[in-house]
Design goal:
8-stranded antiparallel sheet; single chain; mainly beta
């Protein structure tokens, strides 16, 4: 009975001693004097506000230490976090004593094992130190593994057979341990203390040593083989296998140990990750089927302890997102003044598929910038994601799924183009919004989001968006307040065509088109023998433009017609036959394009606009035209702004309107050519007087107007919202008499069509003369008649010629609506309409010339009818 009791007491004591041999300290109690108690250079260390043990010694060329009791020496495992904010050297390093014979680690006679972090080769190595003070390196770590700032997770294992293994994780996370080496050594099998010995030189190294999460515990050997934790398809030809523990390199990199069904087979190669030994990268020659559920089988994979996984498997799916799988369905561009939502811009993305889609590598791009790549993030089927800046992400934590991304592009209050781009570079969805989409003048001023009505109709644009009706101002992370069926039943329209060079034509449609239909060359036909293009390329991100490459060169000064057929939008609506005209643009020269109408004092609901007119016989490209103003102080050109970055052709006789918002102009005035509007950031044009300047791409001034509000019609009481119209585009621009207030009958403005006050040159260019000016109709063969000669600048005129006596009475109608050649004559023989000879005296020949365009001019010539004596 006594023997059994003694055995039980020995067992209990052993368990108690083993339990007390373990050590753990994360310094969360704010000190190192209790639980456990450390000794040594207690003034050389502090516990900082981050609850880390930090060096505090400020003595140059010093060595100092801190130690605590620890009896665990065999079948043990040591782990700790070490951060060194400097570059190590032979005079600046840290010795971590795993097992020490005494508390004073600086004493030559203290023996044991330590890990040196640093030294001249910037390595992590295991040393044995005997009682005579001689240190021997028993595991030589990789040279140069430490950098100018080290964030290290250290792990050392000594098993029951006295085999030592030294690991480092320079990510500091404990998930990417790398084996520095192994050795068997049983020189010392006991320990009294664990501790830290620091050697430093100058003040550059003071207070830059940090330690945390120190754990010393019994080592339990690994007898369990590895298992597959997950498989992730990285691309069509690669996948990553993550095991639940580090795997041995040779078995992990044997390609024959892996196989994927669905015809994929074995990988060409397998590569264990350089930082995470539990991760293996597989590379295949056969593609992984898009959207299919695949099974990876792995065999004969060993862990670092030699445990072999005979066979394991895991399923995975690879899916490349297609256009409109993910849509931007809510935009908060102007969060201020705040209604109830956070004062932060955001986009909402909806996954409209039945599949989970990983967003890693995706980006948000706008007209001017692009975000950083998204991190790995699985967006479940039919769910929403709020995307905002990293700084604002926490504000939306209560609204649903949220992802903060770096360099989130600014969402312009006045509108911009924003796209969701996949990691493959595919524009999944593009939205080009502007304030008119709100359809509410109050909500467009801020605090309310734009919401998509029908997410199955992503291409329609303004017809499928409006301001949120939710009381909070929007619905981030949830179904839109205005969600409803709103199918697109209208086919796209060919809105613009431009030749960018002799062999290239750019076609623009009113909405996004099906890329396969848009890329079919047989769907296009061009007049004048050009026929179909040889290549058609649909351009991202918005898929509204198609670039056509021609087999034959376009000719100058020729107008071509293109017909588009069988082009569909993303809802399947198809064009039957749309046509557009284009040609090679000429060089814009002085007064080819003129300023034709200016609104510089709009109403409170309106905006300035400038109308231009192509008075030349050339096709011109507005991409090569700029608008500007002049400084009121220096009179120098300022605010020079390109009209458009697109190729926009303006044909002879075309009008175009430039403003900050064509939509606002069209709300206030009749627009007979609604497509002929260009929105830009307009130069400033004051209400009283200012300068409008047009320039070509070479800086040549094409036309310039120095307007004055005093030019308005004097009887108008209020000129707000009244445009100034050019009377005649062929007369001088800087002539106040060539400008007049737009008529009230047209709503005080005629943007995009002929001015209400238009008057062209109504006079006839030409002359009429009479010879001889004295004649005697007596049939004697000398000056028996007079000849009325005319010469005109143009064809198409008719004439009425009437002869009056000195009293103003008509005596002869010589011609009545006679059709004229460009040059010719009429003859008067001195007789009346009744064939009676007129009396001697003076007569007036009135020649009235006019055409069907309304040009008219009268010529008066005096002749004398005499007699012979």
């Amino acid at each position: 009975m006594q023997k059994k009791l003694l055995t039980l007491l020995v067992f209990v004591f052993s368990v108690f001693a083993t339990a007390n041999a373990q050590l753990s300290d994360n310094f969360s109690d704010g000190d190192f004097t209790n639980n456990p108690a450390w000794s040594g250079g207690t003034s050389d260390f502090i516990v900082n506000p981050a609850f880390e043990l930090q060096s505090n010694n400020t003595t140059p060329s010093s060595t100092f230490y801190l130690s605590t009791p620890n009896a665990l020496a065999t079948a043990a495992q040591w782990e700790m976090d070490i951060r060194l904010a400097f570059s190590t050297s032979s005079a600046n390093y840290v010795d971590v004593y795993l097992a020490a014979s005494a508390a004073d680690l600086s004493n030559t006679a203290t023996s044991g094992y330590f890990v040196r972090i640093g030294n001249s080769t910037d390595e992590i190595s295991l040393y044995l130190k005997d009682a005579s003070g001689v240190s021997s390196k028993i595991i030589d770590g990789a040279d140069g593994s430490l950098s100018s700032s080290t964030n290290l997770k250290l792990k050392v294992i000594r098993n029951a057979s006295n085999n030592w293994s030294l690991y480092r994780d320079l990510t500091g996370t404990g998930t990417a341990f790398v084996l520095e080496g192994s050795v068997t050594d049983a020189t010392f099998t006991t320990s009294s203390f664990f501790g830290l010995l620091i050697k430093q030189s100058t003040n550059s190294f003071f207070q830059k040593h940090f330690f945390d999460n120190i754990v010393i515990q019994n080592y339990v050997p690994d007898v369990t083989p590895p298992s597959i934790q997950s498989v992730t398809a990285v691309s069509l030809f690669s996948a990553d296998v993550l095991f639940n523990e580090p795997v041995e390199q040779v078995s992990a990199e044997t390609a024959a140990n892996y196989s994927v069904n669905n015809g994929v087979g074995n990988p060409n190669s397998a590569q264990r990750d350089g930082l995470n030994p539990a991760l293996v990268h597989l590379f295949f020659s056969n593609p992984v089927p898009n959207g299919a559920v695949n099974t990876l089988t792995a065999t004969n994979i060993s862990d670092l302890s030699g445990n072999i996984m005979l066979s394991g498997s895991s399923t995975f799916t690879f899916y490349i997102a297609q256009r409109f799988d993910l849509v931007i369905d809510e935009i908060m561009a102007d969060p201020n003044p705040v209604v109830q939502l956070p004062d932060a811009e955001y986009l909402e993305i909806k996954n409209v598929t039945g599949k989970t889609i990983n967003l890693q590598g995706f980006r948000i791009s706008s007209s001017s910038s692009s975000s950083s790549a998204f991190p790995s993030y699985d967006l479940p089927a039919d769910s929403f994601l709020i995307v905002t800046t990293t700084a604002d992400a926490a504000l939306f934590a209560g609204y649903g799924r949220v992802l903060g991304i770096a360099s989130f592009p600014g969402l312009g209050n006045s509108g911009t183009t924003v796209s969701l781009i996949s990691k493959e570079g595919v524009a999944l969805h593009t939205v080009s919004y502007d304030p008119t989409w709100y359809q509410n003048s109050v909500k467009s001023n801020g605090g309310w989001s734009l919401e998509m009505i029908d997410t199955k109709n992503p291409c329609t644009g303004a017809a499928n968006w409006r301001a949120s009706t939710d009381a909070k101002g929007g619905t981030p992370g949830a179904k839109n307040a205005i969600d409803a069926l709103n199918p697109d039943k209208t086919p796209p329209i060919l809105v613009r065509v431009a030749a960018t060079d002799n062999f290239t034509v750019l076609v623009t449609f009113s909405e996004s088109i099906d890329s396969a239909k848009g890329a079919s060359v047989s769907n296009y036909s061009i007049s004048n023998g050009i026929n179909s293009p040889v290549v058609a390329t649909v351009l991202s991100p918005d898929f509204t433009k198609v670039e056509l490459k021609l087999a034959s060169s376009l000719a100058a000064n020729t107008v071509y017609t293109i017909t588009a057929n069988n082009i569909s939008d993303c809802s399947g609506n198809t064009i039957t036959a749309n046509t557009g005209k284009f040609g090679l643009p000429g060089l814009i020269d002085s007064l080819d394009i003129v300023i034709n109408e200016v609104l510089f004092n709009p109403t409170t609901t309106g905006t300035d606009y400038v109308e231009i007119y192509n008075r030349s016989s050339k096709i011109l490209d507005l991409k090569k035209l700029f608008i500007a103003n002049r400084s009121s102080i220096t009179d120098s050109l300022t605010s020079i702004t390109n009209l458009t970055s697109d190729n926009v052709l303006v044909f002879p006789g075309d009008y175009y309107v430039i403003s900050t918002s064509g939509a606002l102009v069209k709300q206030n005035y009749v627009a007979k050519n609604p497509d002929n509007f260009i929105d830009i950031s307009m130069p400033s044009y004051p209400d009283d007087k200012g300068v409008v300047v047009l320039l070509n791409s070479s800086g040549l001034i094409i036309d310039e107007l120095r307007y004055d509000a005093k030019w308005h019609f004097g009887l108008l009481d209020n000129v707000e919202g009244v445009s100034l119209e050019r009377v005649d585009y062929n007369k001088q621009t800087q002539n106040s008499l060539n400008w007049h207030s737009a008529a009230s009958t047209v709503g005080y403005g005629t943007p995009s069509y002929q001015n209400s006050q238009f008057r062209s040159d109504l006079t006839v260019s030409g002359e009429v003369s009479v010879s001889p000016k004295v004649f005697s109709p007596d049939n004697d063969g000398t000056d028996d008649y007079t000849t009325i000669n005319y010469q005109l600048a143009d064809l198409g005129y008719v004439a009425t010629i009437t002869i009056f006596d000195a009293a103003g009475r008509p005596v002869r109608v010589l011609a009545q609506n006679a059709t004229l050649a460009q040059k010719g004559s009429f003859r008067w023989d001195g007789l009346t309409d009744k064939k009676i000879k007129v009396q001697v005296g003076s007569y007036v020949i009135l020649t009235e010339i006019f055409n069907l365009e309304g040009k008219r001019k009268s010529f008066k010539n005096v002749v004398v009818v005499g007699s012979k004596f």
